[in-house]
Every structure is written in C-alpha cells, then in structure tokens.
Amino acid sequence: MKFENVLVTGGAGFIGSQLIKKILPISQHIYVIDDLSTGQKDAIPTSDKITFIKESITNKEVLEYVMPKVEYIFHLACSNILKSVDNLELDMNTNLFGGFLLLQSAHNYCKNLKRFVYASTTSIYGDTEIIPTKENYYKIELPYAASKFATEHYCNVYYHMYQLPVSVVRLSNVYGPGQTILNPYCGVVAKFFEAVNKNQPQIIYGDGKQTRDFTFIEDALEALFLVAIKEKAIGQVYNIGTGVETSVINLLNEINKITGYTEGLIEFKQKRQVDIVKRRNIDSSKIQEELQWEINYSILQGLEKTFQWLREENKV
Questions:
Q1: Hey, which of 39, 47, 172, 212 has its CA 20 to 30 A from 274?
Q2: Could you report the per-residue pLDDT of 113-129, keeping only the tens digit for each?
Q3: Which H or E run includes 65?
C-alpha cells in the first residue's frame, strides 16, 4: 500500500503526529494544518516530505491552496471537550464549521480524492444506558459531542449528495507513546505518569469508580489506516475501542505498580462539568468483522509500552 499526497489536520497533536510517523514511509507527501493551540510542532517528524502550515482549519485560503494537492485527508483537528463547555462558540466554529469547510473544500478542489477519514468521538454516547455501546446509539449532552456528531451528519450528507468517499471513526480514550503533558488537555494516562515523574499527587475527579474504554495508540492508528484503504469503509461509521472497562482508580493502581510509585498520594477532586460518563464500554465488532481490525494491546500491555517509551525519552 502506498499513499499519494495526504492532508492531516491536527497533525501536531498526539494522534495526528503518531499517524504521520506511521504513514510517512509510504506517503508521497504529507501536508499538516495545525494552529498549535494545543499541539506541539516538535511532535511532527522532520522530513522533506512534510509541509507544515500553522493555521486554523477555518482558513478558507489555506484550504484552497492545500486541497487540490491531496488524495487522502485525515481530519483530526478539533477543539477539546474541556474547552467546549467554557467557549461554545469556539467549539462550534472549530469542530462543526471547520469540519463543514473541509468537506466543502474537498468536494470543490480534491479532484482525485481517495478517502476523507473523519476522527469523531465516543463522547457522543454520553452517559449511556447501553453497555457495550454500538454505533447506532447516541446521547448528546455536551457541546463537544454536539459539534462532533453534527459533523458526522455533514459527512453523511457529502457522501450521499456528492459521493464523497467519507469514513468516520469514533475513537475511545486513546493513549500511549507520544502523549505528553505539554498538551494541557491530554488524557488521564499521561497525567498519572506525569505525576509519578514529578512526585506529585495523582488527581482523580469524582470517586474514581467511573470506567473508560482505553485504546492503545497503535491499535487506533491501525484502525485509521484500514479505514483509509478499504473500499468497504466508504460511507461507514466505526467504533474504535476494546470492549474492556477500566475504572480510573484501577488505572491509577496499575500505573503505580508498573512504575513502583507505591508511596504516591491520591487527591480526589469534585467532578468537572464534563465528567458525566459513569461507564464506557465500546462495541467495535463492526470494524473487526468488516475490515478485520484487531485489538492487539490490552490495557496492561499498553501501559507497559507507554512506560517503556517514557523511560527512553527520560520523561519518567
């Protein structure tokens, strides 16, 4: 498999930068659009095959310049869930209007588009009553979920009206090597490891009994890759998760076992406005059956790999 010219929005973020590393050897050229509001330019590999553009995805002139050059689009740029409750207008403008502009620009300018992969989120399931959760469910309770889900609808519109080759993946709590505390909105795994490194209290919002379906970065990247190359994925929505629930307190305990951080302090804080999900368990059988995606890393294996990377990078 060889990619031609690729656009990765949000390429300086955790998932975006790791995706670039994965597909760089098999890509002709990669264009990266990221405004660095949360991403780190240093996370992007150095290569003559990469063109970095520090801009917002809502900049129409930038899209008019880039879109005619690419055949594959991975749309990962978004406003974070924590920021969304403080600034609904920013969330809507970045996630929904930005997603719409990308779809419209792809339709107008990408004459040889092979695939438009949109990275959505399992946050659209909210505090679900259905466990494990399939793709046909939704419960929109936060602005971030609303803007991401609305963009999914526009993906569907462009697929049906213009036959745009769009595929949607709903990612669940992705973690692993490359995720650092430099992004203030990074996931809980990175924050727990960082607390170990700095010998600081590990913070839990709520009682720690809430569960999440943690997905290792390598598994998530393989899903993005398969969705981009498999013809059957066009027009489809896929859950990306492991189907395994891990409570936040158990996650912390496993990290402390791995690191030997047995004397650390746990600080419980009041739930934040975004902390509405009691349980998350994602049914990813659809992508497993249709695209032969496999879950290769358990939570313990993923944490071990993450800790190994942190030690190699002298981050813990």
A1: 39
A2: 999 999 999 999 999 99
A3: helix 60-66
